[in-house]
């Protein structure tokens, strides 16, 4: 889709409906896709953090999380059609009905949070399967075991909730080892689903 340059970060010029359609295409295609959902603060950070900027610009979809980004786009004269936040995209994705069901792995947040989020999601969204959960506090030497756990779970979508920019950098560094179809950086969303 079209992209709008917002202070150096190329944000997809899409509505929620189009983002969901694109997500479905990613699930049907081969390969690992990445979706990032930077808010205004992270967009500012990307201005000085060039590795973050190139990670965002090298991803398959960047959506504007927060009214601040949509407002900035208006000021810059590249009006984004609407705010598509990461949490809303993920929430709406739980209602995408596919056969077999979409399998999610919930990675990140404090111990117990992903499991509680999984329970709440399963109660509310019958079209979802949870492939696994793993908290977001680990040492570098645990990383390989985490990748193995995610890959052997056969997850389709990996939700990475390590906070920004940690989750963006983790996804970028580990993309080539992952077998999931889509990785999404989701910030504090697992805390919200668990709450
Ligand atoms: N988090 C994590 N590992 C870390 C640091 C943070 O799993 O090493 C989790 C934290 O528990 C929270 C999430 O990342 O669930 C988002 O954190 P924060 O609200 O600070 O980030 P933001 O939403 O601003 O990106």
UniProtKB/TrEMBL annotation:
Any single biological process term in GO: cell wall organization
This enzyme's EC code(s): 2.4.1.187
Keyword terms: Cell wall biogenesis/degradation, Glycosyltransferase, Teichoic acid biosynthesis, Transferase
GO molecular function: N-acetylglucosaminyldiphosphoundecaprenol N-acetyl-beta-D-mannosaminyltransferase activity
Pathway: Cell wall biogenesis; teichoic acid biosynthesis
Catalytic activities: UDP-N-acetyl-alpha-D-mannosamine + N-acetyl-alpha-D-glucosaminyl-di-trans,octa-cis-undecaprenyl diphosphate = N-acetyl-beta-D-mannosaminyl-(1->4)-N-acetyl-alpha-D-glucosaminyl di-trans,octa-cis-undecaprenyl diphosphate + UDP + H(+)
Family statement: Belongs to the glycosyltransferase 26 family. TagA/TarA subfamily.
Function: Catalyzes the conversion of GlcNAc-PP-undecaprenol into ManNAc-GlcNAc-PP-undecaprenol, the first committed lipid intermediate in the de novo synthesis of teichoic acid.
Protein name (database record): N-acetylglucosaminyldiphosphoundecaprenol N-acetyl-beta-D-mannosaminyltransferase
Organism: Anaerobacterium chartisolvens
Portion of the parent chain present: 2 to 196 of 244
């Amino acid at each position: 889709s079209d992209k709008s340059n917002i202070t150096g970060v190329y944000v997809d010029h899409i509505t929620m409906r189009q983002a969901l359609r694109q997500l479905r295409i990613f699930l049907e295609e081969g390969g690992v896709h990445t979706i990032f959902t930077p808010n205004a603060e992270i967009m500012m950070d990307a201005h000085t953090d060039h590795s973050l900027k190139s990670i965002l610009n090298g991803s398959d979809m960047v959506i504007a999380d927060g009214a601040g980004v949509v407002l900035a786009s208006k000021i810059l004269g590249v009006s984004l059609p609407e705010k598509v936040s990461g949490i809303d995209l993920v929430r709406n994705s739980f209602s995408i009905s596919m056969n077999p069901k979409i399998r999610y792995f919930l990675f990140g947040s404090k111990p117990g949070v992903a499991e509680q989020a999984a329970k709440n999601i399963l109660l509310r969204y019958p079209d979802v399967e949870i492939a696994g959960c793993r908290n977001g506090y680990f040492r570098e030497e645990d990383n390989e075991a985490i990748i193995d756990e995610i890959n052997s779970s056969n997850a389709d979508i990996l939700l990475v909730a390590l906070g920004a920019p940690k989750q963006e950098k983790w996804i970028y560094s580990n993309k080539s080892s992952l077998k999931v179809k889509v990785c999404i950086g989701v910030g504090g969303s697992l805390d919200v689903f668990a709450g």
